[in-house]
From TrEMBL:
Pfam families cross-referenced by the UniProt entry: HTH_30 (PF13556), PucR (PF07905)
UniProt-annotated stretches for the region Disordered: 214-403
Domain Purine catabolism PurC-like: 23-142
Name recorded for this polypeptide: Regulatory protein
Compositionally biased residues, Low complexity: 230-246, 335-363
Length: 668
C-alpha cells in the first residue's frame, strides 16, 4: 500500500493548473513543441521569464520558463556542455517546460538546446517572434480562470444534488449514491466499530476495501481502550522518482522526497539530474522505515511549512506533506501552502528533483509513502512519532481526513463531525480538482444524518417521550436520559420578544442538554445537575432550580420559574433556588398544607392574585420590581395586592401577616 496522507483544511486554495496541451492549442500564440516528451501529461502552474544562466534558485516548480537566449555565451557551440547543464538545472528545479523565443537574439532554436531537452525529458516550445512573453503569461492566467470557474460550477452542482439527496426519505443511502455518481467511484459509510453500514457505486476489490478500512482508523476518534494495532510505528517513505542534484548551500532532500510547503506549484517527476561533486547530500538513511503494524501502514507526523523567503536549509523533503489534487482548485493536504511571490526571484528553495511541492494543483506522484499532518520528523529526531496522532497521543485530535492509493485506486476517509466514530470512505479511479470539496460536503451532511439518532442519544429521548405519553411516571424513564439528579432551568432572552427555536436550541447546547422546551416567552431546559450553569449566559436571564430526583421534576419546574421571576425583578442574569432548612420544615407537611389551603382559600380561586401576592412578598413589597417580574403595570400590582388584603381580611403591612402568608404560599 502506498503512502497515507492526512488532509487538514487548507487556508486558501491555489490556482488550478493548466495542461500544456491547452496552451499549445491556442492559435493566437502559435506555440510549437520541438523537443521533449508528449505534452499530454504536463501541467503548468506559473509562467516565469528569466535570462539567468542558472535559473534554479529562482524557480518554485511547475513553471513554463521563457527565455530569449540572452544568457547563452557566444562561445557556446553546438556540442557545448552549457546547454546540458542549463537544462539539467531547470529539470532539477521542477520546471514544467521551456519556451524559447525567436528574435531578436536568435533566429532559430539552438540544436544543442533541442538535444539537451530531448535527453533530459523537458518539453521545449518554440515561441514565434509575433508572440510576446506577456501574451503567453496572459493566456495561462485566462486558462487558469476558466478551469477555476469550471471547478466551482462542478462543486456547486454537486452541493445542490447532495442537499437534495439528504432530504429524501432514505437520506443516508441517497447521499452515498449521489456522491458515488459525482466522483465516479465507490462511497461507503463505516460505523463506530469499523463495519460497513451502507455503500453505493462500483464496489472495489478486496485489497482496496481492506486498505480503505485501515485508512478509517487514521481519522476515527481515539477510544478509551486503545486498539491492538495502535502501537507506534516508524516513518515510511517510498521513493517517488529519481534523485535531485546535490547543492553545497543547502541540504538536498533524499530521493524519496515528498512535496513540501512553501512553493505554489507541483513539481512533476523528472529524470535524474547530474550530481554536483562539491555539494554534500544528506544520507537517505535518515528516514526511518515503515513499521508493520501501522493502521494505515505509514506515519502521521505533521509537516512544517517551508519559507521560501528565508535563505536557510530546508528539512528533508520526505517529511513534507503532499498536495491534494482533490481539494478545491487543487488545494494542499497537510499544511496550507504559503503563497509564493513571483515578484521576488532571489529566494532560493531546496529542490528534490522528482518531488512535487505543496500548493500545486494536479495529480501527486503515486507511492510517495509518507503520512503528514503538521510537524516534520528530522533525521536527528528523538522518539518515534510515526503512528497517527489519534492513536499515539489521545490528547491530540485525529485528522479530519486522510488519503491513500492502492491497486490503482485513490482512497479517502473523512471523519464525520458528530464525534461518534462514523467515517465516510471514498474509492475512485482518479482524482479531479474539487473532489475533496464534494466529499467534504457529503461528510457534513452525513454528520447531521448520523449524529444524534444513530448515536443512541436521540433514540433514548424518543423512547422516553413515548413512555411518558403512554403513562409511565418520570422516574421510570429518567434512566434513559442519564444518571444522577437533575435541575430545571428557566430562561428568558434579554429584550422584548419570544425566543425562536434556533436560539432555544443554542441555549440548550450551551447548557449541555438537548431537552429544551421553547414554550412561549420562557425556555425550559432539563439539565443534569453536574452541568448546572456556574456563570451567566450572555443575552439570557436564567432561573435555576435545586437538584432533584426525577419524581420531583414538577417541583423543580416551579422553583425555576420563581427563581427566574426574582432574577428579572432584581436584574440579576442568573439566580438559583436557595434550598436550606427553615422553621417551616418543623411543621408536618400534611398539617402545613391543610393550614395553607384554609388560610389562602379566598384568593386561590384567582390565580393572578395568588401569583401576584407570592411575587410581591418575595420582593419585600417592592411595587416596581413586582411589576417587572410579572410584566404588568405597577398600578395593576397595587390593585391586586389591595384586592388580596380585602379578600383575606388582613393587614399586609404587618410583618407577621406577611410571614404567615409566605409560609402558606410555599405549601401550594
Amino acid at each position: 500500500m502506498e503512502g497515507t496522507h492526512t488532509m487538514p483544511d487548507p487556508a486558501a486554495p491555489p490556482t488550478p493548473p493548466v495542461p500544456l496541451t491547452a496552451l499549445l492549442a491556442r492559435e493566437d500564440l502559435a506555440l510549437r513543441q520541438i523537443a521533449g516528451p508528449p505534452a499530454g501529461g504536463v501541467v503548468v502552474h506559473w509562467v516565469h521569464t528569466s535570462e539567468m544562466a542558472d535559473p534554479y534558485p529562482y524557480l518554485l516548480g511547475g513553471e513554463l520558463l521563457l527565455t530569449a537566449g540572452v544568457h547563452i555565451p557566444e562561445a557556446a557551440g553546438p556540442g557545448a556542455a552549457y546547454f546540458d547543464d542549463y537544462v539539467s538545472r531547470i529539470v532539477a528545479a521542477g520546471g514544467a517546460a521551456l519556451g524559447f523565443g525567436l528574435a531578436p537574439v536568435h533566429d532559430t532554436v539552438p540544436e544543442a538546446l533541442v538535444a539537451a531537452c530531448a535527453s533530459r525529458g523537458l518539453p521545449l516550445l518554440e515561441v514565434p517572434p509575433r508572440t510576446t512573453f506577456s501574451g503567453v503569461a496572459r493566456a495561462v492566467w485566462q486558462l487558469m480562470a476558466r478551469a477555476r470557474l469550471a471547478e466551482l460550477r462542478r462543486v456547486t452542482e454537486a452541493q445542490q444534488s447532495l442537499a437534495a439527496a439528504a432530504s429524501r426519505p432514505d437520506p443516508v443511502p441517497s447521499v452515498l449514491r449521489q456522491l458515488a455518481q459525482r466522483l465516479g467511484g465507490w462511497a461507503v459509510l463505516y460505523g463506530p466499530e469499523g463495519a460497513e453500514i451502507a455503500g453505493a457505486g462500483r464496489r472495489p476489490g478486496e485489497e482496496a476495501r481492506a486498505a480503505l478500512t485501515r485508512l478509517t482508523e487514521v481519522v476515527r476518534p481515539v477510544r478509551s481502550t486503545p486498539r491492538a494495532s495502535a502501537a507506534p510505528e516508524t516513518t515510511g517513505a517510498r521513493p517517488t522518482g529519481p534523485a535531485a542534484p546535490a547543492r553545497p548551500d543547502r541540504p538536498t532532500p533524499p530521493a524519496s522526497a515528498t512535496p513540501r510547503t512553501g512553493a505554489v506549484g507541483a513539481r512533476p517527476t523528472g529524470p535524474t539530474a547530474s550530481a554536483q561533486p562539491d555539494r554534500p547530500t544528506p544520507p537517505t538513511s535518515a528516514t526511518p522505515s515503515p513499521g508493520p503494524t501501522s493502521p494505515a501502514g505509514t506515519t502521521a507526523q505533521p509537516a512544517e511549512p517551508a519559507d521560501p523567503a528565508q535563505h536557510r536549509p530546508t528539512p528533508p523533503a520526505s517529511a513534507a506533506p503532499h498536495p491534494d489534487p482533490t481539494s478545491p482548485a487543487g488545494t494542499t493536504e497537510g499544511q496550507p501552502a504559503a503563497p509564493a511571490d513571483p515578484a521576488q526571484p532571489d529566494r532560493p528553495t531546496a529542490r528534490a528533483g522528482a518531488a512535487p511541492r505543496t500548493g500545486a494543483v494536479g495529480a501527486w506522484p503515486a507511492g510517495s509513502g509518507a503520512v503528514r499532518s503538521g510537524v516534520s520528523p528530522r533525521p536527528d529526531a528523538g522518539p518515534d512519532r510515526s503512528a497517527p496522532a489519534s492513536v499515539t497521543d489521545p490528547d491530540r485530535p485525529a485528522p479530519s481526513s486522510a488519503t491513500d492509493s492502492v491497486a490503482g485506486l485513490h482512497l479517502a476517509a473523512y471523519s464525520l463531525g458528530a464525534g461518534h466514530g462514523f467515517v465516510l470512505g471514498v474509492a475512485t479511479p482518479q482524482r479531479a480538482p474539487g473532489d475533496h470539496t464534494v466529499a467534504s460536503v457529503a461528510a457534513v451532511l452525513l454528520s447531521l444524518l448520523t449524529g444524534e439518532q444513530q448515536s443512541g442519544t436521540g433514540a433514548a429521548r424518543s423512547s422516553a417521550l413515548v413512555r411518558l405519553l403512554l403513562g409511565a411516571p418520570p422516574e421510570e424513564v429518567a434512566s434513559l436520559l442519564g444518571d444522577g439528579p437533575w435541575i430545571v432551568v428557566h430562561a428568558r432572552p434579554d429584550g422584548d420578544g419570544a425566543p425562536d427555536p434556533v436560539a432555544a436550541s443554542a441555549l440548550g447546547a450551551a447548557l449541555g442538554s438537548a431537552l429544551v422546551d421553547p414554550a412561549g416567552e420562557v425556555v425550559r431546559v432539563l439539565v443534569p445537575a453536574d452541568r448546572a450553569p456556574a456563570a451567566p449566559l450572555p443575552g439570557w436571564t436564567l432561573g435555576v432550580s435545586a437538584a432533584v430526583a426525577p419524581y420531583d421534576w414538577p417541583a423543580a419546574d416551579t422553583q425555576a420559574a420563581r427563581a427566574l421571576a426574582r432574577a428579572r425583578a432584581t436584574r440579576a442574569p442568573l439566580l438559583g433556588h436557595a434550598a436550606r432548612p427553615a422553621l417551616a420544615d418543623l411543621v408536618p407537611p400534611g398539617e402545613a398544607a391543610a393550614h395553607a389551603r384554609t388560610l389562602l382559600a379566598p384568593v386561590t380561586a384567582h390565580p393572578a392574585l395568588t401569583e401576584t401576592l407570592r411575587t410581591w412578598l418575595s420582593l419585600h413589597g417592592g411595587w416596581d420590581r413586582t411589576a417587572v417580574a410579572l410584566s404588568v403595570h405597577r398600578n395593576t400590582v397595587r390593585q391586586r395586592i389591595a384586592r388580596c388584603a380585602t379578600l383575606l381580611e388582613t393587614d399586609l403591612d404587618d410583618p407577621d401577616v406577611r410571614m404567615e402568608l409566605w409560609f402558606a404560599l410555599r405549601q401550594l
